[in-house]
Amino acid sequence: MRLFRLSVLLILLSTWLSGPFLIAQAQTATGNAEIDALNQQIEAKKKRIAELEKSMAEYNDKISKTRLEAVSLKNQMALLDNHITQVELDVETTQEKLDTVKLQIQGLGISITDKNKVIERQKSILAELLRNLQQEQDKSYVEIMAGYDNFSDFFNRVQYLNKVQQDLGLSAKNLRVAKEDLEDKQQQAEERERAYNELQAELKDKKADLEGQSQNKQNLLVQTQSSEL
């Protein structure tokens, strides 16, 4: 009789169990839309980075060619101009990379929040299932049967027992997978944070380099003007 009651309980909970999980799935829709928007921005940033890196390579060629030319004030000025432009492009590239990593961190934050909601909802489902199980174990056979209009409805629901048991297993699996995915997202977020900090330090150095190159150009301009007097 105890096993029979358990079977009946699992059937009674089949509809209830599937409903909340769909709600948990629906809660991810907004997060997914935000992530899609962030991914579009990230792709645009990556495209811009590729363009900037191509321009930097072109200026690197110009610098190499200029160095092969005869040394003169004009040559040195052209070399400095190319250096400055290259460093400016490098600064912009690093800034774009920073923005890209920041967008990735935002996306991971949304995913982590979303996964936490799914996990909490699945925990709630399983906890409620256990409470209902305890309550149903205390019910009499007559009370269980009273929930159906006729015997036909009762036995039709019994046929779904195996499916309900599979759904319960799937719910537990979904909870485990969600936790594993959460841990993965958290690790990715930590890695992106480290990359962001490294890029910030790199950007600071490149801005200092740009300032130095600009000062060199100013000094060369002063020398050029003095030689023309």
Tell me the series of helices and strands, N- to C-terminal: HHHHHH
User: Whole-number average pLDDT?
Assistant: 76
Parts with pLDDT < 50 across at least 5 consecutive residues: 1-27
Strand proportion: under 5%
Biggest beta sheet summary? none
Q: Structural class given helices, strands, pairing?
A: mainly alpha
Strand tally: 0
DSSP summary: helix tally: 6
Distance between the termini: 111 Å
Outline the structure in words.
By secondary structure, the chain is mainly alpha-helical. The chain is built from six helices and no strands. α3 runs antiparallel to α6 (161-228). The protein is rod-shaped and about 110 Å long. The N and C termini lie far apart (111 Å).
Care to give the gist of this entry?
This protein has 229 residues and is mainly α.
Write a concise keyword list for the protein shown above.
mainly alpha; rod-shaped; 229 residues
Q: Layout of SSEs?
A:
Elements: H1 2-26, H2 28-68, H3 73-137, H4 141-145, H5 151-158, H6 161-228
Helix pairs in contact: 1-3, 1-6, 2-3, 3-6
